[in-house]
Specification:
Length: 221
């Protein structure tokens, strides 16, 4: 069992928030570390969420680190737009571009933290060539496209494998997990080596997002 060297970051996913109250929802997650921003194009994933204007609005309403997860085809076409709209970090899928190394380099050239991610059915080896060049690796623990899906248990082993690869490289990149994260599996993921947990439906629940963040913190304490 790996003992996390630093507190695990929490990144509530705005996909599950009440967009009529975006500013208040951002205030409610002020005790989290990052705001996770899920952009979907209806092509890479079978759902459309939102794009640059919502990120810009969130940026104006909050000083949280804006962690932008691009679930769009050929994300290289829009990196500058999201950077200009206030992204602090941008994560791209290996399946969405023919040029993952170039895309990661382009994010860093824009002065932003570069992330790489893979769908649950993609071999982890697809990310290995760029591991030394990224600031974040995201393990998708559901098939991307929707909030509120069930956590895929095999993801835990994928986190462990990536933890090993990052440690071998001496990389201090964040190891993030996204999809079906709840207080019931947060500790397990941290023990497997995750350093940042994304959570949508388990944070933005009926009792409010501040309580949701607190529940995850308690589970990790
Ligand atoms: C899924 C998105 C996730 C999603 C997570 O495609 O990338 O960030 O919002 O939602 P939950 O935590 O409800 O699985
Ligand atoms: Zn996401």
């Amino acid at each position: 069992m790996t003992v996390p060297a630093r507190p695990v970051k929490l990144a509530p996913s705005l996909l599950s928030c009440d967009f009529t109250r975006l500013g208040e929802e951002l205030q409610a997650i002020a005790d989290a570390d990052w705001a996770h921003v899920d952009v979907m194009d209806g092509r890479f994933v079978p759902n459309i969420s939102f794009g640059v204007p919502i990120l810009a609005a969130a940026r104006r309403a909050s000083s949280l680190f804006m962690d932008v997860h691009l679930m769009i085809e050929q994300p290289e076409r829009y990196l500058r737009d999201f950077a200009d709209a206030g992204a602090d970090g941008i994560t791209v899928h290996v399946e969405a571009t023919r040029h993952i190394h170039r895309a990661v380099g382009a994010i860093r050239e824009l002065g932003k933290r570069a992330g790489v991610t893979l769908n649950p059915g993609t071999p982890l080896e697809a990310a290995r060539p760029v591991l030394a060049d990224v600031d974040l690796v995201l393990v998708m623990s559901v098939n991307p496209g929707f909030g509120g899906q069930k956590f895929i248990p095999a993801s835990v082993e994928r986190v462990r494998t990536l933890r090993g690869w990052l440690d071998e490289l001496g990389s201090d990149a964040e190891l993030q997990v996204d999809g079906g994260v709840t207080p019931a599996n947060a500790r397990l993921l941290a023990d497997a080596g995750a350093t940042c947990l994304v959570a949508g439906s388990s944070v933005f629940g009926p009792d409010g997002a501040a309580a949701g963040v607190a529940r995850l913190r308690e589970a990790l304490a």
